[in-house]
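Bench notes, afternoon.
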Amino acid sequence: MPATISSIAELEALYGEPAEASILKETPRIIPEYRALIEAAPFVALATRGPEGLDCSPRGDGAGFVRVHDDKTLLMPDRRGNNRIDSLRNIVRDPNVALLFLIPGIGETLRVNGRAVISVDPRLLESFSVDGKAPKSVIAITVDSVFFQCARAILRSELWNPQKHVARKDLPSAGQILAAVTQNRFDGETYDKGLTERQKTTLY
């Protein structure tokens, strides 16, 4: 790849100084205004790293499913999934994590950087129960920095514009993808037929 940036000095010369507000908005704790954003968010992307590399995992539940324990601590239930546990494997070996919170209809996102541990405390797990079903673990995050991200990316992408929603039929289905990557070891049509019901009955 020609004409690449190979030093921080080159990078800073290209972009110049950051705006003052971009620096001042970062805090080492969760202020009330940032807490309001976290409690309104039903979705967060969790980034982790481990010996095999990086991972970014979608996490979602009812608004405020990531609990603000105090101004330095977040608690996130690890809801039922596919049992790959990529994020959890990484956290066990490297506690550094990053989170990106999204709120439907809101342009600003919220970024949190911190260090995580995995708790299996029975009382904590029970406090996150839904329909009598507790998560197997809770990710406890010590906050190092938190700041909001301006709305430009959301505005450019028109993420919340319903007129830009993509029809599911216009893209490969989960079954079609599985069939392709497994050379038809999976019957894609059968997989798709049962997918909605499987997801509905295994949310928690």
